[in-house]
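Entry: Pyruvate ferredoxin oxidoreductase, beta subunit, putative
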Amino acid sequence: MSDVTQLIHEYLRHNKKFPHVFCAGCGHGIVLGSLIRSVHALGLPKDDVVVVAGIGCSGRLAVYVDFNTVHTTHGRALTFATGIKMANPRLKVICVMGDGDAMSIGGNHLIHAARRNIGVTALVLNNHIYGMTGGQCSSATPQGDISMTTPYGALEDSFDFVEMAKAAGANYVARGTSFHALMLDKLITSAIMHPGFSMVEVFSPCPTQYGRKNKFRSAVDMYKWLKKNTVKIETLKEGEKPEDGRIPIGVFRDRQTPGLEERYADMQRKLMGTGR
């Protein structure tokens, strides 16, 4: 049995219909593989992992993996994840969201999850559009780009998820792409094991709802664009932005501040007279 086949049998639910529902060329399947490889590399028991997801294409990841999973309401995945982590801090809680789930309808929850520095790993699959519900503009749609609700081009600036998470107080902040799969494995592995709130934004192409409207002739062109228009952050000086407009990828913050659940447990011990 090959390593890939072993992972499939060990980590995917076989009573679900495969192939998956993702469109041809969608990057979400690559992120699914990266998540599985990361958990496997860490040797985490499946019963110790919880995957929480909201609504949208990214939400299907929770359906396929053989972990403890919760499929929640749109924009509220982080609230469920916060409750799970506080109730059982021993669990590794991974919250999978799209850009709409995380920063449009759920933006307030992401800000406060980062502010609290709760020990949850947020995977934000950014395809720059509402992919499942018809291709509407999201808070990640770049200005000037076409969507079903911005047929003449988006007039608003898009959010920078990395800067938002850093400003709100997240411990670990990283950005990868579904083109850079091996790099993504490392980012997700580090995020899962990090104390406090960790966020990994993943640029994940949507050929169907985004690519076709924005002059990408094929999914391959979208992956070529990711290769050409990203740059690893370690090649830049601190605080430097690429003059050619390329998007930095890599780790933007890495600190070890205790998470909310750790601070809560410490306070509880002190109040019960068992702490220092």
